Amino acid sequence: MRWNPAGLIPQAGLGSLLWYLQRLRMMSAGELGYRLRQRGTLRRLEASYRSRPKGNLLRESLPLFCSATERQLPAIPIHGARLRNLGPRLLAGHLDGAHPWRWRDETDVWHRAPDSGRIWPRGFFANLPYRPGNAYGDIRLLWEPARLQHLVDLALYADSMSRDLRGRAVTMIRDQLLSWERANPPLDGPHYISAMECGLRLIAVCHVLDILRPMLQADDPIRSCIAGIAESHATLIDQRLSLYSSRGNHTMAEAAALVYAGALFPEFSEAIDWRQTGLRLLAQEAEHQVLPDGGGAEQAMSYHQVNLDLLALVDALLRHRQMASEPRLAAATHRGDAFVRSMTLPDGRLPDIGDGDHGVALARSMCRHQAKARSRSCGIRTYPHAGYTVGRTDEPRSLQWILDHGPLGMPPANGHGHADALSLLLSVGETPLFIDSGTFLYGGDAQWRRYFRGTAAHNTVVVDGHDQARQTGAFLWSQPYTSCLLSRMQHSDGGGRLLAMHTGYKRLGVTHTRGMCWSPDGWLLVQDQLTGSGSHEIALHWHTPIAVEPFTPTGQRLAMPACKVVMEIQGGDMALHCGQLEPPLGWLSPEYGTRETVNTILVSHRGPLPHCFATLILLGEARPSRHQTEEFLQWMTETTG
C-alpha cells in the first residue's frame, strides 16, 4: 500500500458557478429561505470573529463534567486486540492506517496538508476555499487528525497500561489537546468549516476527558480545554446545522454532538435547547436515514455504520445519565445493526459500497459487534428498501454474494452514492473474488473522483462509455436511475435465481437486465442482457484482487488459495487491465487516500442490440447442464416480458 498525493488543480470560477446552479435546482422554497438566513448568520459570526480578542476564551469556573473525579459516561465497547495493535502506533505519534500525519509539537501540525505539504490558510472559516479544486489539498485528509478521535484510542490504551507507561500517554494527549486549542481559536481556520467535524471532535474530547479523569489532577489544563471546546463547538453547530438537501451523515453527527453538549454541560445557558434540538433532529433522521429494512438511505455502508454508532452512543449516554431518550434511536439502531450483520463480508469487513472516508463515530477500537460473519445462516435475503439481495451457500463450496438493485443514493443530491446499479460482490469462503473499488479521495485530481464513483469501477456493464447517472459535481448527480428486483427464487436444495434491472441507460435507449442462477454443487451463472435499439459499445467489468492467468480463448482462470476457481465468459473480447492511467481502470482504494492496482477483467462488444454476456463461476468439476442453462434463460425472457 502506498500513499498517493492529490493532483491539485486551481479552483475554477466557472466550475464553482456551475456547482451553485446545480445546487439551486435541488432546493425548495423553504430551503432557499434557510440558506438566506444562513448567510445572515455567517455575517454575524464574522463580525463577532473580527471584533473579539484573538485566542480562546477562559471560563471563571469549570463545569461539573470537567471537574468531576468519577467517570460520567458509559463505558465504550472496544475490540481488545485492535486496541492493543493500535496503541503503540498512537504512542509513537502516528494515526491508524496509511494516513501520513504524525504528531509534532509545532505550530503548523494541524494546518499542513498531508497530501500536498502546503499550509492551509487561517482566517474566518467561511471565507476559506476548501471545495475540490482548491490550491491546498483534500480537506478530508486535513480534518482526520483534527477530529482528535485518535486520542480516545490513546486514552483507552493508557487506561490499560502499567503505571510507568501511562504517564507518557497522558502527556502526549495533553500536549496534543492544548496544541490544537492554541492553533484553532473559535471560528478561525479550516477546522470550523464543517459543523460535522466540530460535532465529532466535541464527542471525542468528552470521552477523552472521561477516560483520563482518574489520572488527572484537579487543575490539569485538559479540564478547562475540554470545557472551551465543548462550548465553542456546540454554539457553532447549533447555528450551522446541515438541513434540507444537505441532510445526511453530517446531520447525524451534528445532532449527536448537541445532545452530548446539552446533557453534559447544563451550566451553559443554551444547554436545554441544544439537547432538545439535537434529540429531536436525531430521532427524525434516525427514521429517515435508517430505512425500514435497516439499510442506509445514503447508499454508503461506511457512513451507515457511523450513523448507527452515533445513535447507539447517544442512546447509551441519555440512559446512563437517567435522561429521557427517544424510542426511535434504539429502534433504528436495532434494525440497522441487523442489516449490517447480514451485509458483512466473510472476512469480517463491511463492503465498500458507496462513498467511504473510513471515518468512525468515536474511536477505531470501538466495536459494538464482534460475532464472526460465518455464523450466519445460508439462503438468500432481500432488503427491498435499501435495494440489496444477499446470498450464501453451504460449506464446503461456500459462496457469498451481494447484488445491488437499489437507488443511486439519498435524494436530491445522491451525494455519497456510486453509479453501481446491478453490481455484484462475490466471495468464495473468506476470500473476496469480485470487489468494490472503494472511494480514494474527494478532492485532488477530479478524474479520480469521477472514476471511483463511476460505473466502470464496479462489477456491472457500461454502455457507450457513460455512467449510469450523470456526475455534475464531486457530491452531485443528475439523471438518477431506478433499479428493481424483478424476481427471486430459492430452491429447496440451496440453489436459486435472481433477476434485476435498472433504467440508467434509458437516455441512450438501452435497458440492462442481470440474471443470476446458482447451485449448491458449486457454480454460479451471471447473465447480462442489453436490450434496446441501435448499435452500442458495451463493456462488462469484473474487478478482482485475485491473480488471473490465461485459460482458454473464451475464459480466464483465477488462482485462489485452497480453492480452484474457473471463470468462463462469453459475449465479447476479453482484456485484463491493471493500474491503467488513461483512462483510469484497474484500481482499488483499500482506505481513504490510498490506491493500489487491481485486476479488472474487461469484456467488450460493439454492435446492434440485443446482446448478452454470460459469466460462469466454477468452484469445482460441477457445471450447469445445457438444460439448466436453457431453462434459466427462458425464465429470464418470460419474467422480463
UniProtKB/TrEMBL annotation:
Domain of life assignment: Bacteria
GO molecular function, one term: lyase activity
Principal location listed in the UniProt entry: periplasm
Keyword Ligase: no
Any single Gene Ontology cellular-component annotation: periplasmic space
Keyword annotations: Lyase, Periplasm, Signal
Annotated protein name in UniProt: Heparin-sulfate lyase N-terminal domain-containing protein
Protein species of origin: Natronocella acetinitrilica
